[in-house]
Amino acid sequence: MKRLVDLSNEEARAHFLKGSSYFNGDLPRYLSFEPILAAVADALNRGNYAQYQATNPALLPNVNYNFIANKDGRFAWRPFELIHPAIYVSLVNVICEVQSWESIKRRLGEFEGGVVDCCSAPVMSIDHQTDVATQIRSWWQSVEQRSLTYSLEFSHLLHTDVTDCYSSLYTHSISWAIHGLEVAKKNRGKNSLLGNRIDSHIQASRYGQTNGIAQGTVLMDFIAEIVLGYVDEQINSELGNSKDIRVLRYRDDYRIFANSDERAEEVLKIVSDKLRTVGMKLGVSKTFSSRNVVEGSIKPDKLAGIELQDLGDSNAKTIQKQLLRLHSFGQRFSNSGALRRLVSEFHGRVSEQTQAPDDLEVQVAIATDIAFVSPATFPAVAGILSHLISLAPSEDKVSLWTKVRQKMARVPYNGYLEIWLQRVTQPKAVGIKFESEEPICRIVNGEGPELWESSWIAGGALKKALDVSKIVVAAADEVEEVLQPEEVELFKQNAWAY
């Protein structure tokens, strides 16, 4: 495991230009944004997007591409935002200039120390693991384990997080974080300031807005970490060298340790005040306190999941019974990390069933309903369904997948789910031509919808580099019928963070 800030500027640039950094969620293996990023990087030749613009992209909507993941099957949506590749690569070029990168590294070093302990410094893999898996292992080691050890020193824990952190971040605060408030205010709007250049890139991609950054990319995670590190510095300045408290922060998640409710609440107010200066506020509904640090350090769904860990022969001897136990757990803890972990583990074991059982359609129905109630589980549930339905006679596969498709279509606004439905229904062994309004699915089907508004580009090599067909790196109908657990590795690793 290696910290991102320990990289050279060239190593950092290569890291940010990886497809898995541009979008840090799971995608089917026939999709990759890396070819477009490489083509755009060649066209820009370390330059700035502004050299190639015919008009200002900040004046146009839909420069970035947004698609939605549904979190609860109803009204809780998580927007993923794919930054326009020309602006993204240009921003990487700016940040990874030698002087810029050294300046950022030096500033992040200044945030360290004090009462607030940041546990979310971006890390990358130096072994076979993915970078996101490495980040999650860091979370487990730094936050949950350290929280448990603090039970030796503290009796009270107050847990809170920021509401809509990325969409509320005030972009001018990026310059404050890098240069300090006084310098940034005196040089507001000057392109000579690194923070202003980063700010202008983000505004250019988001219709000129000064509130919010894109969600779903390692680069924006890094920028958010710079701003939150600046907030840490402000909190530390207010609290001084207090020995009777400790704050652990992982991204926008805060754990305040103290020896009384009153002291914990005093610190909470300071955290809230400092976050408000950069446009953020704490989520009241997600704030809770505990007078037992061990119990408060572990989420309730995780404790319940530990009790349900054994889905095998001892308590549920059939696949149907194991699915029913998962379904029951999902009703109690829908979309929880523990449910995602249990579903992921079951995905790994379901291959033990090698012949079509008499209750196959029942198993398919239960598994589908788990995903319907908890859409966040769908990548792993898709894998479970792909194995179950692969056991059915060929003439029944289309019927079963059609029923699954019709049910999941009732989940509103879920482009991410559509991408994974296409993965499991389009292989030749299934034989369904997956039709969808989701542009990424249409691109897989050979169509050419726009993902990003690019009319602001003057033309030439840069516009040619943005050919969306480049994201399809293999034929969707040629992939294996059964989705293997390693295809949703990020889902699995994210599940283990809980």
Question: What structural keywords apply?
Answer:
alpha+beta; flat; five-stranded mixed sheet; 49% helix; 498 residues; two-stranded antiparallel ribbon
Describe what this molecule looks like in 3D.
The protein has a five-stranded mixed beta sheet, sandwiched between helices. It is built from 23 helices and nine strands. The chain is flat and about 70 Å long. The longest helix is centred in the middle third of the chain and has 22 residues, at 218-239. It is α+β, with helices and mostly antiparallel strands and 498 residues long. α5 (98-111) packs across α11 and α16 (337-349) runs parallel beside α18 (378-390). Helices cover 49% and strands 8% of the residues. A hairpin with a 2-residue loop joins β7 (246-250) and β8. The mean pLDDT is 89.
Cα radius of gyration in angstroms: 24 Å
Taking all residues together, what is the mean pLDDT? Answer: 89
Strand order across the largest sheet: 4-7-8-6-9
Q: Quote the beta fraction.
A: 5-15%
**Structural shape:** flat
Q: Give the biggest beta sheet.
A: 5 strands, mixed
Characterize the quaternary organization of these chains.
single chain
What percent of the residues sit in helical stretches (DSSP H or I)?
Answer: 40-55%
| Class of secondary structure makeup | alpha+beta
Uncertain runs with pLDDT below 50, 5 residues or more?
A: none
Number of strands: 9
Give the terminus-to-terminus CA distance: 20 Å
**Individual helix count:** 23
What can be said about this structure in brief?
The chain has helices spanning 9-16, 19-22, 34-44, 85-95, 98-111, 131-149, 165-168, 173-179, 181-186, 194-205, 218-239, 261-276, 293-297, 300-307, 319-332, 337-349, 360-373, 378-390, 394-408, 415-425, 439-444, 461-465, 489-495; strands at 2-3, 65-70, 77-82, 116-118, 123-124, 156-161, 246-250, 253-258, 288-290. By secondary structure, it is α+β, with helices and mostly antiparallel strands.
